[in-house]
Design goal:
The protein has three helices and nine strands, in the order βααββββββαββ. The chain is of the alpha+beta class. Strands 1-7-6-4-3-2 form a six-stranded mixed beta sheet. A three-stranded antiparallel beta sheet has the order 5-9-8, with helices on one face. Helix 1 crosses helix 2.
């Protein structure tokens, strides 16, 4: 996991992009997470020296042409190893190679790049949860159908470059 303090410029850019985007169809939070989402993308693109694309299928291309989709979640505290990483069920149709998972404090002062998972491995290892299912460990009710993978099963970001 990589802890990042976003710069003022990164936050301002994320706010501009979120305002221009508005609310996406199928958004669980109806656009409320857009600033954090863009901030996650900006941070990951800088870490990987990747080119942001903002397509339906992926958010960026790295130097090797790997299509990366960044999944960012807003949070109120630092992530714990037992937390889950989530991809909405409709996201399973995206044509990307890798997912990178990020958490961003609601006040935007800190972000954590949790790790990455190749798409095929993510779906092989993840658990499917239907809308309305309850996570028995904490009582959380899923607001949308999704695939869930424990954060502990992610790979370090550096593994994108290992052969």
């Amino acid at each position: 996991m990589i802890e990042i303090t976003p710069t003022k410029e990164q936050i301002e850019q994320a706010k501009r992009e979120a305002k221009n985007l508005g609310s996406l169809s199928g958004s669980i939070t109806r656009g409320a997470g857009n600033v954090a989402g863009f901030l996650g993308e900006i941070i990951v693109a800088e870490l990987l020296a990747a080119t942001r694309q903002n397509t339906y299928d992926y958010d960026m291309l790295d130097a090797d042409g790997i299509k990366i989709d960044v999944k960012t979640k807003r949070c109120t505290s630092a992530p714990k190893e037992f937390y889950d990483c989530v991809v909405p069920a409709h996201g399973s149709k995206q044509s990307c190679d890798d997912y990178v998972f990020v958490r961003v404090l609601e006040n935007l002062k800190t972000a954590w790049v949790l790790g990455r998972k190749p798409k095929k491995e993510f779906y092989a290892d993840a658990t499917y949860r239907k809308k309305g299912d309850v996570d028995e460990s904490c009582g959380f009710v899923y607001k949308a159908s999704c695939y869930v993978l424990p954060m502990s099963q992610l790979e370090a970001l550096s593994t994108l470059y290992e052969s």
